[in-house]
Design goal:
The structure holds two protein chains of two kinds. Chain A has 15 helices and two strands. Chain A is globular. Chain A is mainly α. In chain A, α2 runs antiparallel to α3. Chain B is mostly helical. In chain B, α1 crosses α9 and α5 runs antiparallel to α8. Classes of the chains: A mainly alpha, B mainly alpha.
Chain lengths: ~350, ~290
């Protein structure tokens, strides 16, 4: 049963990573608000299904809706939030400015949820969604968990097919063209903001779905479950697997989650240093990100060469769609923000 | 009215700490064109170094401040040498993500050494003083005076020394500075040491003002720092001081009338407004150039 839960978790995070890769891998926007979308999706799934709060616990809504409907509503709400944040952050902020704006957005959201208890009960968080539909399906506890794993894997496969199709579609190619050289893409008639905005909303929708699955998986959610460090693990997984390559991204998540998180579980935590093992794990994640960026930024699987002639992210070579503007792309990186 | 004046007084003290941290951030950006996400960690390192040093030097505030600055300088040198220079020529966002990795590493190394629980300095806050309309503790006054002193020293360094001239040249164009005979590598190293020292000192001052701190001290101050820096204009040291003043006062006054827990929310709103309408800082005329780093 232990491995069932490990694989389930990795499967859920793989869906999340596919969504993040659309935003970061294809579109090139380093989004730090992304984990907030998972959190909102998870919170909403809870408050829509677990019924009225009993004091002193407090949270909004408190409905008794079916879990599937709740997840759908949660995804809609998450896309709504992403539509607001994306409209601000994607309009004309790029790179570091975009990253800082999304970091600010998620920090503000985090503070609000943590301190304003009527929303989602502050630090304590929400809980109580235990195996929805178990009695209706007439399953044992363990049987339910295995069925849930199956559902997660099916959803992951569907998400993969969708993303893979999208990746080869004109939309996917347009996003990459915009990523490689925004001005050139605009000059060729692409609407830069709308391309990035749609990618952003699509990614956020996958995060909302992941939040719903996560709610069923861990059956409790509080602010400690979505600290900024959690998102870094997903970025590390994408970097390892291969940014912009859906298959690589899924592989990266499974490598990082199973091969890495689980192995470091066996790190000793001496009694005098109870924080040692979790801290050591985060240190390793940080190291992995730096080393991947430095020595193999394209990851295990490169982005498919047939799509954009094998250009890695940030490669100072000619952008794929804009042959004419090739010499301009190298100095553009040094211009800096306050031009 | 009294509440308002007191909040301005505290705001000035916050602004003083913010100006230290933001000036260091902007100096790093000026010479390396890097937004250093591990900048907050310089503050945390300074705060913990002073914490370790205070017992050795019998609770001397001055000694603790010096230790914090030295530790920060070492951290600045190490980051520039070990990471920033290794990533030269890579895109700004790649370096940014790499420094994010550094931030996580440093935070957790400190957690292993000092534990995740908060620690407290042994120094008192001192007596309350009425200075004009404001109400300040002794350490508030020390913070404000030291921030002014640091600002003065930076001004003299940048305007009146060969080092300052070289820094200004490099921030304009590194390659051009190099062919003019400026030892760019060395000057950049020295700038990172200087920025690290200021940030380390800021960390000590921040930790002392807040009272208790943990491994996330600097990281949670980073968004305030970035807001102040953007308010002034990235890479402009003097304007950054003004930015810190505006941001420090704004969040303190807003926090006084709502709840101090939401200071960061105000900082964020301010940051968004700044980036949308004054991306090059409040002190330059409205730019027609969109921000594309």
């Amino acid at each position: 049963m232990y491995w069932v839960s490990v694989v389930t978790e990795a499967g859920i995070f793989a869906i999340l990573a596919l969504g993040l890769d659309v935003i970061w891998g294809w579109s090139g926007d380093f989004d730090l608000a992304f984990y907030g979308y998972l959190a909102l999706g998870s919170y909403l799934t809870f408050v829509l299904t677990i019924g009225k709060p009993t004091p002193p616990v407090e949270y909004i809504l408190g409905f008794h809706l079916p879990v599937l409907l709740s997840i759908v509503l949660a995804v809609v709400a998450v896309v709504g939030l992403a539509a607001v944040i994306g409209a601000i952050a994607l309009r004309n902020l790029r790179d570091i400015y975009f990253a800082v704006t999304t970091l600010g957005a998620v920090s503000a959201l985090y503070l609000l949820v943590e301190n304003y208890t009527p929303l989602f009960d502050g630090y304590n968080g929400v809980y109580g969604l235990i195996n929805p539909g178990q009695t209706a399906l007439n399953l044992t506890y363990n049987g339910y968990r295995i069925v849930f794993l199956g559902i997660v894997l099916i959803l992951l496969f569907l998400a993969y097919l969708l993303v893979q199709r999208l990746s080869r579609s004109p939309f996917g190619r347009m996003l990459r063209a915009v990523r490689e050289d925004e001005r050139a893409a605009a000059a060729y008639g692409r609407q830069v903001f709308w391309a990035k905005y749609r990618a952003y909303l699509f990614g956020a929708a996958l995060a909302g779905l992941t939040g719903g699955l996560f709610a069923i998986f861990i059956s409790a959610f509080n602010p400690s479950a979505w600290t900024p460090q959690e998102l870094l693990v997903i970025y590390a997984a994408i970097l390892v697997g291969g940014r912009g390559n859906p298959r690589g991204v899924i592989l990266g998540v499974f490598v990082v989650y199973i091969g890495f998180i689980e192995l470091t579980r066996y790190l000793p935590s001496p009694a005098s240093r109870p924080d040692f093992a979790p801290a050591a794990r985060e240190i390793l994640i940080g190291l992995m990100i730096i080393l991947m960026l430095r020595f193999r930024p394209e990851g295990i699987f490169r982005e498919r060469p047939g799509l954009d002639r094998g250009l890695g992210p940030g490669a100072p070579t000619a952008p794929p769609v804009a042959v004419a503007s090739a010499p301009a792309s190298a100095p553009a990186a040094d211009e800096g923000g306050a031009g | 009215m009294t509440t308002f004046l007191v909040s301005i007084g505290i705001g000035l003290s916050t602004a003083a700490i913010l100006s230290l941290s933001a000036v260091a951030f902007t100096l790093e950006y000026a010479v390396s064109r890097v937004a250093n996400f591990a900048h907050g960690e310089f503050l945390t390192i300074g705060a913990y170094a002073a914490y370790s040093g205070q017992t050795i030097f019998h609770q001397s505030v001055a000694a603790a401040a010096v230790i914090a600055a030295v530790a920060g300088a070492v951290a600045g040198l190490a980051l520039n040498f070990g990471l920033i220079e290794q990533f030269r020529g890579r895109s700004a966002i790649t370096v940014f993500i790499a420094t994010f990795g550094v931030a996580i590493i440093v935070e957790n190394v400190l957690t292993i050494i000092y534990g995740a629980a908060n620690v407290t300095y042994g120094f008192g806050q001192g007596k309350l003083h009425h200075v004009g309309p404001f109400l300040w503790t002794t350490s508030d006054i020390e913070v404000i005076i030291s921030a002014l002193a640091v600002a003065g020293v930076i001004y003299l360094l940048l305007q009146r020394t060969r080092f300052g001239k070289a820094v200004r040249a490099i921030s304009q164009d590194r390659a051009l500075a190099q062919v003019s005979g400026i030892p760019a590598r060395r000057i950049i190293m020295q700038t990172w040491a200087l920025a690290g020292a200021i940030a380390g000192f800021a960390g000590f001052v921040l930790a002392d003002t807040v009272g208790t701190f943990g491994p996330t001290l600097g990281f949670s101050f980073l968004l305030f720092t970035i807001t102040a820096t953007v308010a002034g204009g990235l890479g402009r040291p003097y304007a950054t001081l003004g930015g810190a003043l505006i941001v420090g006062l704004a969040i303190q006054i807003a926090g006084t009338y709502t709840s101090s827990a939401y200071e960061l929310v105000f900082a964020f709103l301010l940051l968004v407004l700044l980036m949308l309408f004054r991306p090059n800082g409040v002190f330059v005329r409205r730019s027609t150039v969109a921000v594309r780093a």
